Amino acid sequence: MFAMTHAGRNERDRWNQRYAEKGWSEDPSPWLVSNVDLLPELGPALDIAGGTGRNALWLAERGWDVTIADVSDVALAFATERAESLGVPIRTEHVDLSADPLPTGPWDVLLLFHFLERALFARVASVLRPGGVLIGSLATVTNLERNPRPPRPFILDDGELPSLISDLETLRYEECWADNHHDARFVAHRPLDGTEGPHEQTHQP
Questions:
Q1: Mean pLDDT of 33-42
Q2: Residue 21 above 80 pLDDT?
């Protein structure tokens, strides 16, 4: 158990209440599903702020060795219960990722969906194996045109994400509307030899 600050306890309590009161989707992110071919061979994967585990459990069912890290013990309990019902093993780490470092791994896959803590990006390359992949989706400021959440402090500026993952090689990237949400979606990896290869970027109105 990590040593939780007062702010961390508030964050835990806030998220515990949200997870206890609201039903959360069990379906994996379409971005993850559509880009599974870019992930490395089966190995350890970390779902950063993975909540109830919709993405982590999808990977676990396909053979990845998955750990979910989240501040909410309620969410982690839900994830563990569902993993048991599916008959797949997962690990959980109760950690405040707004204040504490990423679990060290090293990881073959990092999942980062709908949790923005800019300081985390500076640590990503150090916990990824060479060849390891970071995949995720984060809301941009354009999303506020249609949706009040996430609020401004927890979303990216339009076009900001590439600068945050500049230590990695971008494999696929787009900013666009999908399911009435405007997100920056990305797949990037830690190069094996420091060289860059081809990448694909898409910006849609």
A1: 95
A2: no
Q: Which residue has the higher pLDDT, 68 or 98?
A: 68
The answer to whether residues 187 and 172 touch, using CB atoms and an 8 Å cutoff, is yes
Over its C-alpha atoms, the chain yields an Rg (Å, rounded) of 16
What is the reported pLDDT for 135? Answer: 98
Quick check: helix, strand or coil at residue 164? helix
DSSP string, 24-90: ---SPPHHHHHTGGGS-SS-EEEEET-TT-HHHHHHHHTT-EEEEEES-HHHHHHHHHHHHHHT---
Helix (H) or strand (E) run with residue 187 in it: strand 181-189
Rounded CA separation 39/36 (Å): 5
Pairing state between β 200-203 and 169-178: parallel
Q: Which residue has the tokens 């190995």?
A: 43
Entry pTM: 0.85
**In contact, 69 and 47? CB cutoff 8 Å:** yes
What's the CA gap between 110 and 46, in Å, rounded? 5
Whether the CA torsion 136, 97, 40, 86 is positive or negative: it is: negative
What's the rounded Cα separation, in Å, for the pair 74 and 116? Answer: 20
| Closest residue by Cα to residue 108 from 181, 39, 9 | 39
Alpha-carbon dihedral sign for residues 22, 25, 30, 36: positive
Structure tokens at 141: 């400021």
Asked whether the beta carbons of 124 and 165 are under 8 A apart, the reply is yes
